[in-house]
Amino acid sequence: MSSVKATDGLGQHATVRVVLIAAAAALGGFLFGFDTAVINGAVDAIRGSFSLDAAQTGFAVSCALLGSALGAWYAGMLANRWGRVRTMQVAAVLLVAAALGSGLAFHVWDLIVWRLVGGIGVGVASVIAPTYIAEVAPARIRGRLGSMQQLAIVLGIFAALLSDAWLADLAGGAAHTLWLGLPAWRWMFLAAVTPALVYGLLVLGVPESPRHLVAKGRLAEARVVLQEVLDMHNDQALGKKLADIEDSLRSEHKPRLSDLRGAAAGLLPIVWVGILLSVFQQFVGINVIFYYSSTLWHSVGFSEADSFTITVATSIVNVLVTLVAISLVDKIGRKPLLVIGSAGMAVTLGAMAWCFSQATGSGAELSLPGSVGIVALVAANAYVVFFGVSWGPVVWVLLGEMFPNRIRATALAVAASAQWLANFAITSTFPALAELGLTFAYGLYAGFALLSLMFVLYAVRETKGVELEDMRA
């Protein structure tokens, strides 16, 4: 197998195969983005179809995130018991079932149940993909391969928003009938069946993580994976790598939450860092843009068609800046990108808060006067740029690599669960906050962006180029 980069000095090569394997695993991120963002184009139609108020709408949109928290919580246990690959296959099955159930739901509570099931699948995939990628990638390009998770997420968001816009355009509106007597918003959910099936088929062909194999005492299999995936054929380097993995897992036992205990408010400091990274990633309000943007722009005077177009354009910006982040994360490091992102988000969110303070009217009659609407659009897309180049991909890279081997799966599950709960808190409260005033909502998110800047400066350690076996608590 030819390599796409030179050896890193430890006998590891970044082969074409390891890139393809990481890409297959990262497809779970595509489903993560697709399944969570697909609701964007359906919000108003669901609200009208089931006669929901603001609180009920918020819960219908965000309920999948509770399932994601549950899936993330148990993902580490499943990954340690069944392996990374089998766990990804379970996630694929859950996502196929949820897409069918959500698209054919007859009542709002029926829809909520299926979105919870899909959320569990998304939560599992959100934990396993970065764990698996970090465990098969050479250290010198681990950041770039880890960033593929976020690239897949933003591509999933883009695909969901694009398909929403296309289906709504075909039907003449999300609430209008499309095919087989079903309204367009139902087909928005059914569209998720295809990528879920593709994901399930692709992960059938990826090898198990060498670190999981070593932890289970399957050293011969781990040796084969390291030889084939990382092109390690130097016996001395291969033996040293296996020995390093064994040493880091020497105290390995059945993972327990008690492994995460420490003197810092009951948890190890590194676990708190992971939890707070996850919480801040959501508390800056990014998913308000991707779950509610069509409704948001429609509410301030843009037509439904224009609102869909703006939302798709924003998702394209998100994809492009994620590519920039992938090119930078292993060059300038994780921490500098987070600092840049936090500062930029604080400024742009503050600008959005000011723009909405200039709005006139209320409710469905709310509008942004003159050039203020353009400023709001620019600020919103600049905000996505700063998030996409920093907190979007970098948090997933850090969560996949920052924990010591013996607690990685469990600690990542806890941090990812915290992320989903934070996402739920932000997403479910936005409709009510919007009724209080968008200035207050975006001002609140700007405040959290400032807090995230302080947190990164004082608590986050740089992990660029550090081997997983050398990570410390």
CATH topology of the largest domain, anyone? Growth Hormone, Chain: A
Q: How many beta-strand segments? A: 0
Q: What is the succession of H and E elements?
A: HHHHHHHHHHHHHHHHHHH
Coarse morphology: globular
Beta-strand percent range: under 5%
CATH homologous superfamily title of the largest domain:
MFS general substrate transporter like domains
Report the structural category: mainly alpha
- Helix content class: over 70%
What about the largest sheet?
none
Overall average pLDDT: 77
Q: Radius of gyration, rounded? A: 22 Å
Q: What is the CATH class designation of the largest domain?
A: Mainly Alpha
Which architecture of the largest domain per CATH?
Up-down Bundle
The first-to-last residue Cα distance is 36 Å
Number of domains: 2
Q: Oligomeric state of the chains?
A: single chain
Low-confidence stretches: 1-11
Q: Helical region count?
A: 19
Transmembrane segments: 14-34, 54-75, 87-106, 112-133, 145-167, 187-206, 263-290, 310-329, 336-354, 374-399, 411-434, 440-460
Family: Belongs to the major facilitator superfamily. Sugar transporter (TC 2.A.1.1) family.
Organism: Rhodanobacter ginsengisoli
Pfam family, one: Sugar_tr
Describe the protein in words.
The model is unreliable at 1-11 (pLDDT under 50). The protein has helices at 16-37, 43-49, 54-82, 84-103, 108-136, 142-171, 184-190, 193-202, 210-215, 219-229, 235-248, 269-283, 286-299, 304-328, 334-357, 372-388, 391-401, 408-436, 438-459. The chain has 19 helices and no strands. It is mostly helical and 473 residues long. It has two domains: 16-206 and 262-470, Up-down Bundle (Growth Hormone, Chain: A), CATH 1.20.1250.20; 214-254, no CATH class.
